[in-house]
Amino acid sequence: MTGFVPPAYGERSLGDVVPAIARALGRPLPGTPADPEPPTGPELPPAASYVLFLVDGLGANLLRRYAHAAPYLSSLLDHQEPATAGVPSTTAVSLTSLGTALTPGGHGLVGFTSRVPGTDHLLNALQWRKDVDPQEWQPHPTAFQRLAEVGVAATVVNKREFAGSGLTLASQRGADYLGADRVGERIAAALSVSRQPTSLTYLYDGDLDWTGHRYGVASAPWLQQLSMIDAEAEQLRDALPPSTRLLVVADHGMIDCPPEHRIDVDEEHVLRDGVALLGGEARFRHLYCARGAVVDVVDTWREVLGDRAEVMTREDAIGRGWFGRVSPAVLPRLGDVIVAAYADHAVVSTADFPYENTLVGLHGSLTPDEMLIPLLVS
Fold first, then answer.
1. How far is CA 221 from CA 159, 211, 352, 362, in A?
2. Could you name the domain of life of the organism this protein comes from (predicted)?
């Protein structure tokens, strides 16, 4: 079955954005031991400074489909090719790719939840375990640290609650952090710090993603939130000087998954056979198998799921380039078996992840609605 969009690592993915901005500022980033050849990435117009506005959950297909709710942003779509998220198409993975300029196989955040090697515990990348050091989990210099080395001032503008979080330390250390909880605060902060020449200001808004999870894509609340995001972006662009460029991106899109298209591993008990630990998320599962059980797990899951998901070994997924180049330290964080959902299907566990099953909109797999993201310069 077809229908997946492969990640465009090194060409037009989230990990290519900050290096492209650095080039546009006239300060290209050097390579690192983790990535000796910096990605070529998209070509962005030169500017005195850049404001990078990431809208969580705003897929390129969604923006085009509901253009009436976002006239400003959708007006930019026809002139600019979309980019791709990484794999899986989920927030923690994408934000770390953006912040490090590395693929998931390099930076090591490989899912919403992933196994802590040598244990039977999962790391929830949005609710970081206190016994896991984020700077050991993601040891490479971030792109923000590398920007400072070439003379680019980097600032993150985000909610106060995220300052010092595990994900922030893993993906954004090296940038100044400005806490701003409301839209007006965030715009004002971005306008203030972006006046500094040769600077990058990174602005994050997670409200559209939250709304899509709670109410679904194209619901009345989601469309209203999209309109508010559109107004925020237009207001920001109007307030910025011409010498500053605004670049709007997203971390992934979203798909509504109806209850009848959800497979519960706690009802299909055979799906638990040979699986020691269930990780990932509903649209992209990492299955950590008991010793010697991989072949049987693959066969069972393929038989039960049929054309609802792609089921493969970790080695097959790596061979497809889904995670980019995978470092030895990251390898055991990936499931022994990978399950990527097709269409609007999902694999849930009402025992292990009860909250996840209450969400309407989901993401994580490789469908166009999840993988294609806007890359809009104005």
1. 21, 7, 29, 16
2. Bacteria
Cβ atoms of 96 and 144 within 8 Å: the answer is no
* 0.90 surpassed by pTM: yes
User: pLDDT tens digits for 15-40?
Assistant: 999 999 999 999 999 876 666 666 56
**Residue for token pair 């109410």:** 215
Q: Which of 286, 308, 285, 313 is nearest to 298 (CA)?
A: 313
Assigned CATH class of 14-106+124-255+367-377: alpha beta
Residue 307, burial from CB neighbour count under 10 angstroms (0-12, 13-18, 19+): exposed
Q: Where are the alpha helices (DSSP H) in 60-182?
A: 60-65, 71-75, 91-100, 104-107, 134-137, 143-149, 166-172
CATH number assigned to the domain with residue range 259-362, chosen from the 4 options 3.40.250.10, 3.40.50.1220, 3.30.1360.180, 3.40.190.290: 3.30.1360.180
